[in-house]
Amino acid sequence: MPQFRWPLLPLSLFVISGGVWSCTSSSPPRAPATPPAVKALAPIPMPTPDDTTPKDYPGVHNVVAYHPGYLSGGQPEGDAGFETLAAMGIKTIISVDGAAPEVEKATARGMRYIHLPISYNGIGEERGLELTRATRDAMRVGPLYIHCHHGKHRSAGAAAMVCVHLGWSTPEQGVARMKVSGTSPNYTGLYACARRAALLDEKVIDAVPADFPEISKPTDFVQGMVDVDHAFEHLKEIEKAGWKTPESSPDLVPAAESGRLADLYRSLQETRYVKEEPVGLTELLRDAHAKAHALEEWLAAGEQDGVKLSAQFKLVAASCKDCHVKYRD
Ligand code: HEC
Q: Whose CA is nearest to atom 36 of ligand 1?
């Protein structure tokens, strides 16, 4: 007997008729074969683009709306974080952070994850287009949450840029939302992405391949170390220039280079190389991350005390040696 198949309807039809479909079932729904893994929370109202301060929720911090149903914030923490997002009605989560996202926690609650990491220095053209297409398509399905680690700098910059690309806000409005997120003015590349953004033609967005990964391939460990080394060399130059952008390298942003170093240490923990090593290597990476992150926080906050910054940078340099002695040399 031929099986009935659904005709291929455009997605938009389902979206428009979704409300009708969900409230016409006259018979009680059949019990699922297996009980749902997660108990749903009562709905949580979403923040709105009119809010003038970031909002905190259980397991989800620094949440700012950039457009109705389009939220930026910190990495969801534990089950509580993912439950909060599900209770807000989020359908898709985009991570722009380097570390691998917790995909299972999202899918268990009916949310899709997309992983498109960006740097603290700004967003390359291709990645900018990918983020725009991913956002446009995801928002046709339902509300979207975009996050980095703390939800202050990278996710804010990405959200502001995408809003301009999609015609949801002007560059000025995007920059104003970044200030609500608390993006440090020292991340000049991220602000530039929002300021220089322009409305994109639908055809340009349609031309972007839409096969977005749930987890971007973790950096290869040795390649990661080469990147660590670059960031470290840049920081040495920055230190020589009195913890400012060196005149000879005008594209080096102090907070961005230390942020990149910290982010590399976090994403390296996800590599197979590290997972197959004794736990000691992970611990040293965590420790190296904490030291680079402290430097990043000070630079992002505009710390001027060169002695304090150099003392912290010494700890960062010592963490290279500590680990190499044990695991490399
Ligand atoms: C937690 C451990 C750890 C920390 C911290 C660490 N490294 Fe490494 N690094 C390694 C290991 C292990 C290797 C060897 C990888 C291999 O070749 O298999 C390595 C390799 C390297 C290499 C050689 C890469 C190549 O091309 O083969 C460079 C350069 C390097 N590290 C620089 C640095 C610098 C600079 C820092 C500090 C800013 C640093 N590393 C911090 C563990 C670490």
A: 320
